[in-house]
Write a structure and sequence with these properties.
Blueprint lengths: L3 H4 L10 H15 L9 H15 L1 H11 L15 H23 L3 H6 L1 H30 L4 H24 L2
Helix pairs in contact: 2-3, 3-4, 4-8, 5-7, 5-8, 7-8
Length: 176
């Protein structure tokens, strides 16, 4: 199994500096880019991109770390009880955003679209705050995971949090 931490010259840990990760990836990717006549290597370039994608994600990084350390990981399961409020509030926000987007797409006059702007702004604020809450919860989950034996549960929770955050970011972008 390839150790993506070693490949990108990053300390093997649950917490990593994303700026350092990006810097190391950029340098190595430029060196191994297939168009580089001196060191170009398509397979190495693809491996570097895979490593970067995995280490950039909290949940994927934690799963990779567990695999490297031989810690079993159960992919199946539900979100931890303490995240159910986040699940419910995120689901409601997504439902509200989808309803607004349907209403906006059915609107044909410029005046009616302008009248929807206040509601759009409110939704943008709500979504932005929820994204921030989820980001803080990801950091908290990662911190708890690194100090306990709950790595598998934390990895699963992080995967849910990342999924919810991605869905919110998608709706946020759709509001413009």
């Amino acid at each position: 199994m390839t150790n993506y931490f070693q490949l990108l010259d990053i300390e093997q840990a649950t917490h990593i500096d994303l700026e350092t990760l990006s810097k190391h990836h950029s340098e190595l990717a430029a060196k191994h880019h297939p168009d580089n006549s001196e060191h170009g290597d398509d397979a190495q370039y693809r491996l570097l991109n895979t490593a970067y994608a995995i280490l950039q994600s909290h949940s994927k990084r934690l799963i990779h770390l567990m695999e490297l350390e031989g810690i079993p990981y159960e992919k199946r399961g539900t979100v931890s009880d303490h995240l159910m409020d986040f699940f419910m509030s995120t689901a409601q926000i997504l439902q509200d955003a989808d309803g607004f987007l349907r209403k906006k797409s059915a609107t044909t006059s410029a005046l009616a679209i302008a009248l929807l702007e206040n509601e759009s702004q409110q939704l943008q604020d709500i979504i932005s705050k929820q994204i921030d809450y989820l980001e803080a919860e990801k950091a908290s989950t990662l911190e708890v995971a690194s100090n306990t034996n709950q790595l598998s549960n934390a990895a699963r929770d992080l995967a849910f949090l990342e999924k919810w955050q991605a869905q919110l970011k998608e709706r946020y972008a759709s509001l413009f």
